[in-house]
Amino acid sequence: MPYFPYSKQSKKKKHRGAITAKMVANLLSVAGVDHIITMDLHASQMQGFFNKPVDNLYAEPSIAKWIQDSVPEYANSVVVSKNAGGAKRVTSLADRLKIDFALIHSDRTRGSNQARCSPTIPGTPENDASGSSNNNLNSNNLFYLTSNTTTDHNTTERRSSDNGDDDEFSSAASITGEAPSMDDETVSVITLVGDVAGKVAFIVDDMIDKADSFITAAEHLMKKCHAKRVYVIATHGILSNDSINEIERCKSIYQLVITNTFPLSSEKRSQSSKIVVIDISATLAEAIRRTHNGESISYLFHTAI
């Protein structure tokens, strides 16, 4: 099972909500499955949903090999996580490639008073009377996203079920150059912790479902942080709704790199020239062979086949 379905529903998103991933695990167990081989679970704790052995393989070796073979200037590049939840994945890939990593942090505030102020780093002095600041945070690494705070049941449902805690900021269409002054708006201040100026940036995540947050991150890196080029890399390319066309229209994304854990129809692939698919079938086949013969599969955790 290269892609475990409903893996984002691995915890409650609302009161009395279903943990669908656990239900899928129960269905597989009842059906007689006695061993599960999958790749890049959304949450590694999901292995505990089963009372059978689970082997969670990683696409990282194959992705690292593709970067080394296909991006000549990868030594002068940065691996970027679009939220704090993906920091562990990003640092692991950065260590393998021996390059730097960066993190995008999104902070939501409400009202005009908060919106007008840039985030303050703890331990740094406040602005003086002349308006100058000793804060060494580069203002180019900040920009604001605005959205109306009028909330209905549909909005609440969409926020809880869309991408869960993965997408900390939404559509790039709401990017503005300065903070709004209206009290009835929510302001998201996006900060890049790291430096991508003049470097190739790899935005890495375990899956790409809707493209909004990836597009927003890519545009921030290109327009505000002056990255040389941006690649979006994900293990599972779900690409629901109009995501492929949105990525194709986004000038800030150079290429979208995914694996073939999730089937992508030829019709969808033809919609964009930016899509690159990494074949990981050999890794899964070798895992099946080693499991069948009673051999260790730990070799596959750090080596591309």
TrEMBL record:
Keywords of the record: ATP-binding, Kinase, Magnesium, Metal-binding, Nucleotide biosynthesis, Nucleotide-binding, Transferase
Catalytic reaction list: D-ribose 5-phosphate + ATP = 5-phospho-alpha-D-ribose 1-diphosphate + AMP + H(+)
Organism field: Rhizophagus irregularis (strain DAOM 197198w)
EC number from the UniProt entry: 2.7.6.1
Keyword Metal-binding: yes
Domain of life, source organism: Eukaryota
Composition bias type Low complexity, residue spans: 132-153
Region of interest called Disordered, as start-end residue ranges on this chain: 110-180
Top EC class of this enzyme: transferase
Annotated transmembrane regions: none
Name of the molecule in the record: ribose-phosphate diphosphokinase
Pfam families in UniProt: Pribosyl_synth, Pribosyltran_N
InterPro entries given in the database record: PRib_PP_synth_CS, Pribosyltran_N, PRTase-like, PRTase_dom, Rib-P_diPkinase
GO MF assignments: ATP binding; kinase activity; magnesium ion binding; ribose phosphate diphosphokinase activity
Family matches, as CDD domains: PRTases_typeI
Gene3D superfamilies per UniProt: 3.40.50.2020
